[in-house]
Amino acid sequence: MSPTAGDAMHAFVEELYPICRSITGGGVRETLARVGAHLPLTVHEVPSGTPAYDWTVPREWNIRDAAIIDRAGGRVVDFTALNLHVVSYSTPVHGRMRLDDLRQHLHTLPGQPDLVPYRTSYYAERWGFCLSQRQLDALADDEYEVLIDSSLEDGSLTYGECVLPGTGDREFLLSCHICHPSLANDNLSGIAVLTWLGRRLADRELRHTYRLLFIPGTIGSLTWLSRNEDVVPRIGWGLTVAGVGDAGDLTYKRSRRSDAEIDRAVQLVLRDRATGFSVEDFSPYGYDERQFCSPGFDLPVGCLMRSPHNSYPQYHTSADSPAFVSAAALADTLDALEAIVDAVEGNHRYVNLSPKGEPQLGRRGLYPSMGGPTAQAEQLAMLWMLNLSDGGHSVLDIADRSGVPCDRLRTAATRLEAAGLLRASAAGVGDRAGDARRPRSR
Ligand code: ZN
C-alpha cells in the first residue's frame, strides 16, 4: 500500500470530477490537459466523419449551460450543479413546455429515488434531462423554460497517448476510458491509476514499451486501432483498467485467448497478494477489451476492475461520486498493476548452468546460515528456479507449478544469476498478436 499515492490519486479524481466529459468535446481536452501535467502525453485529434471500421467519428459535442427553469426563475434542474442532469450529446433546445410534454425528455430511477441517472444519446439526435425521482415528484404541473445550450458540429475526437519506451521491441498496452462526465469510479478511477502508473514507469528502466491510452469508450479504441494497425503486431500484453477505486476486491476478466501470458501474470499476481480477488472469463461485453479482443485483432488484452461494472447500485448514477472511491482502493489497484508489470518484465526463461545434481548453495553464500520460515522459503524458491530452469519454463510457469510467489522467484533468479548458476535464455517469452494459441509448457 502506498497511502501517499492513494491520496494524490483521490485528489486527482476530485479535480477531474466537475468536468463535463463525453466521447468528444472540450471536457475531454480539459481532462487530457490535466493528465498531461503528470505524464508525457500526446493528444491526437481525429476529424468528425473519419471512418473507423464499421463506425464513424461523430460530430463534436460541447455544452455551456442547461436548466429547467420555473416561472419564478428558479433552476429546478441545473446542469451547473451536476452535469449528469443533461443527457450526454443532447441537441440544443430553448423554449417553454408544459410538464406533461416535458416528461418524455426526463429520465429518473424510480427504484433509487434520490439518485440521478447517467444517460447518453451519442448516435441518435435527441435531448433530455436526468433528475432524481424525488425532484420530478416535486415539480408542479406547470409550464417551464427549457434550456440546453449545446452544440453538435463537425470537429474532432480527442484521445491521449503516452508511450514509455523499453529496450525490447514489444509493447504492453494499457487503456482507460475518459468519456464519462461526473462519475468517479466508472471513468476517473481508471484515469487516475493509469496516470500514476505512468509516472512510476517513467522513472524505471523498462524491457517492454508501455503504451497508455486515454480514450473515449468504444469509438476511441476503434479509432486508435484503425490508425495503429502497424503497432498491433507488437502488442504482447494489454489491460483495460476501469472501475478501480471502489471498496470491492480486484476482479480480473481474462482476454479472449484466456491463457495468454497476461492472463497468467495477472492471475498469479492476484494469487500472491494477501487480499481476495475474483476472475471472470472473457465475454464480448464490458469495456474496450471488446474491441481489442474482436476476432480481427484477438489481442491478449484482459480487463482489471474492482467491483465489475453494473454490479453495484452506484453504477451510472450520481452516487458514483468521489466519496464512493477511496485513496486506499486506488493505491491497492496501483500496487497490483505495478506487480503485474513486474511479473511481465521479469518473466524470463532461465537455463541452469549446473544442472547435474543440485549445485552447492552454501559454498556460494546462497544457503541461509540462519534457519526460520523466511530463509526456508527463499531456499525453496532457489530450488524451484534451479530445477525448472531448463530453458523451457518461464518464471510464471514456475510460479504456477510451485505455488511460490512470483516476486520471490524473481529475487531467487537474480541471486542465482549473480552466482553464475542461471543464465536468462535469449528466447523471449510471451504472446504476439499474430501467434497461434500454444499449449502451456509444463
Ligand atoms: Zn460506464
Task: Report on this structure.
With 442 residues, the chain is α/β, with parallel strands linked by helices. It has three domains: 5-58 and 156-345, Zn peptidases (Aminopeptidase), CATH 3.40.630.10; 60-153, Domain of unknown function DUF2172 (Glucose Oxidase, domain 1), CATH 3.50.30; 349-424, Winged helix-like DNA-binding domain superfamily/Winged helix DNA-binding domain (Arc Repressor Mutant, subunit A). Helices cover 30% and strands 23% of the residues. It is built from twelve helices and 19 strands. The chain has an eight-stranded mixed beta sheet, sandwiched between helices. The chain has a four-stranded antiparallel beta sheet with strand order 5-4-9-6. The two termini are 33 Å apart. Mean pLDDT is 95; it is low at 434-442. Zinc ion (ZN) binds next to loops.
Average of per-residue pLDDT values: 95
Helix content: 25-40%
Largest sheet: 8 strands, mixed
How many angstroms does the end-to-end distance come to?
33 Å
Strand line-up of the largest beta sheet: 1-10-12-11-13-16-14-15
* Percentage of residues in strands: 15-25%
Taking all Cα atoms into account, the compactness measure Rg is 25 Å
Identify low-pLDDT runs: 434-442
Shape descriptor: elongated
What is the CATH topology assignment of the largest domain?
Answer: Aminopeptidase
What's the architecture of the largest domain in CATH terms?
A: 3-Layer(aba) Sandwich
The hetero molecules present are: zinc ion
Number of helical runs?
12
Q: Count the beta strands.
A: 19
The level 1 CATH classification of the largest domain is Alpha Beta
Question: What's the assembly state of these chains?
Answer: single chain
Judged by helices, strands and strand pairing, the structural class is alpha/beta
Can you say what the CATH homologous superfamily of the largest domain is? Zn peptidases
How many distinct domains?
3
